[in-house]
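Bug #77: duplicate submission created two jobs. Keeping one. Sequence:
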Amino acid sequence: MTEVSASILTVEKENAVRTFYNLETGKINYFHIDVMDGKFVERDTTELMKDYALTISHISNLGLDVHLMVENVEEFIDEYSMLEPEIITFHIEATKTEERTKNAIEEIKRSGSRVGISISPDTNLEEIKPYLNQIHMVLVMTVVPGKGGQKLIPETLEKVKELKKYIDENNIDIDIEVDGGINAETASLAQEAGANILVAGNYLITAENISEAVAKLK
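Kept job's structure:
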């Protein structure tokens, strides 16, 4: 069954609580927290996302889907662990070495959250294959990380298909999440490719009826 993780990157502060409520009652599965440090990607959302994550943790029972687009992965794992998110995802391009990657995986597991590893459009799947048996989710970026409102890069869905084929052939129990340019049309393409968790931002935030928009994605 397809799940929906709502990216709150473009939520306006003055409407934040109402938007969070509408998303939850619209039957999303997770709140997607896009943590950017201004180094790994150009934009810096550290203060805004921490504020939003704290607010959500006080008013909602839904899980946080924390996506770390940061260089100092260890620092932010520690910072967000206190909120007991459902999942914490870091980028393989940020940890770089096998030692750092394994340490990040173990640190997230110790915190009680599920572990996700994300790959950017230009990163080869071979980079993450050694860790697939140790984690719970792969987040395939279907746009360049760091900016909202981009169109899905069609070639990234080939990567999703390749990943799905690999995990099926090797009997690996793992979720595939896609993030970037997801709407009613691209959602079906992502699902056909093998994704079972869809991150959507603008499509949901700007929808006249969030419940209907979520239902279309699912």
